[in-house]
Amino acid sequence: MQQATFRLSGRGVYAAATAETDVRMALWCNDHCDLLQLRGADADSVLAAVDERVGVRERVKEGDTTLAVTAACLREEDGGVEDVLADHGCLLVPPLSYVDGEKRVRVLSLSAQSLTSTYHDLRQRYDVTVADKRSVSAPDPASPAAPTADLTERQDAVLRAAVEDGYYEVPRTTTTAALAERFGLARSTLEEHLRRAEAKLVDAAVASR
Fold first, then answer.
1. Taking a C-beta distance cutoff of 8 angstroms, is the pair 23, 46 a contact?
2. Which of 25, 109, 144, 155 would bridge 114 by S-S if both were Cys, CB 3.0 to 4.6 A apart?
3. What angle do the packed helices 176-183 and 153-164 form, to 10 degrees?
4. What's the confidence (pLDDT) of residue 93?
């Protein structure tokens, strides 16, 4: 299987709402509404922009994370990519994410040609950058699940934040200094949590081979 992450700019209400802010927003579409997860100091202003255009039905804040449910699904108005993916037999891997005016989309395909065709069609709607492209192995439903890494609560939280904020993207969209500030930790302490989490994940992956 082929996997690619596309960074799309040029249109979209949600993308525009995050432009020139520090907010990273994840979106899960539920046909009749969208579930949004926002992190960043400007979350309230981003939600205000979303509320003005599509409506926000509910919201709750948990620490540095804001969750919101919109009043409607913005797929039709927001230049959704789903139809393009369907035309080429590709799959959208949720959630969509929006960072600094860009929509970021992770896509799976059984063939490299389908992925290439999808890219060219998306270029008709957006300015497109390929942030990542790789071959991935399909899971074997008959095989037992791989052992999970025994992460502490803090290691798990730090690792998830690093993934969500783009620490492992190419190029990176956050730093360990920014992550440390988010958790109220010294940078060296944050990096130690991250290294230990990474080491446990590697050990678990090797053990499953």
1. yes
2. 109
3. 130
4. 87
Residue 83: CB atoms within 10 A of its CB come to: 10
Task: Answer yes or no: pTM beyond 0.85.
Answer: no
Give me the helix-helix angle, 187-207 and 176-183, nearest 10°: 110
Is the separation of the CB atoms in 11 and 124 below 8 Å? no
For the cut 50, the answer to whether the pLDDT of residue 141 exceeds it is no
Cα gap 11→77, rounded to integer Å = 10
Q: Pairing between strand 56-62 and 65-70?
A: antiparallel
pLDDT tens digits for 1-53? 889 999 998 668 888 899 999 999 999 887 788 999 998 889 999 999 999 98
CA distance 38 to 134: 28
pLDDT tens for each residue of 150-209:
788 888 889 888 888 888 887 788 999 999 998 999 999 999 999 988 888 877 766 655
CA dihedral 43, 96, 173, 155 (to 10 degrees): 80
pLDDT tens-digit map of 158-170: 988 888 888 888 7
| Cis geometry, peptide bond prior to residue 141 (ω within 30 degrees of 0) | no
Q: Which two tokens stand for residue 119?
A: 């890219």
Contact between 18 and 99 (Cβ < 8 Å): yes
